[in-house]
Amino acid sequence: MVNNLSFICCNIDKSVFFKISDYKLIIIIVYVDDYMIVVTSIKLVDWMKNSIKEFVEITNLEKIYWLLDIKLRRDWKAGKLILFQWSYINVLLYYFELANTKLVSILINSFVYLTFSQLLKSTVEIVYIANIAY
User: Fold this and answer.
1) What number is the average pLDDT over the span 39-64?
2) In CA terms, which of 36, 58, 82, 107 is 20 to 30 Å from 71?
3) 76: which residues sit within 8 A by CB, 6+ positions away?
């Protein structure tokens, strides 16, 4: 299906497929028999769903609120997707017997805007940036 729709499989994570065309980005994340569509435009969601229906039967569950223990919230007016990882962090703290430690939240600068020109263009760039200690 993804080949017929001209998607590219991510070299780093084989469950992620993407397509970039005319500054429009579509990402499909597959997990077992579920998938999530991430797009740069609401109109692309309908196009993507209709395209997938040509190959498989789908059940539309509408908006996603959780993905692999990450809580997702959207602010459409501000154009933001907010990820909450506290559930995942709590599991890790409990596993490593650190559940009684005090947590500190660090806010990411919300005034930083990324553009398509900053998009990593190859697997080599992705691997390179993954090895940088921040």
Assistant:
1) 78
2) 58
3) none
The string of pLDDT tens digits covering residues 7-39 is: 888 877 788 888 887 777 888 888 777 777 877
From the number of C-beta atoms within 10 Å of its C-beta (0-12, 13-18, 19+), residue 44 rates as middle
| Predicted confidence band of residue 2 (pLDDT cuts 50, 70, 90) | low
pLDDT score of 54 more than 70: yes
Q: Is residue 52 one of the residues assigned to a domain?
A: no
Identity of residue 60: N
Tokens 């154009």 belong to: 79
Domain annotation covers residue 55: no
User: Which range marks the domain in which residue 92 is found?
Assistant: 63-103
Please tell me the total count of domains within the chain.
1
With a CB cutoff of 8 Å and minimum separation 6, the contacts of 73 are 65, 81, 82, 84
Task: Calculate Rg over the CA atoms of the chain.
Answer: 17
| Residue 26 CB burial class (10 angstroms; 0-12, 13-18, ≥19) | buried
Average pLDDT over residues 37-58: 80
Could you tell me which of 67, 39, 66 has the C-alpha nearest to residue 51?
A: 39
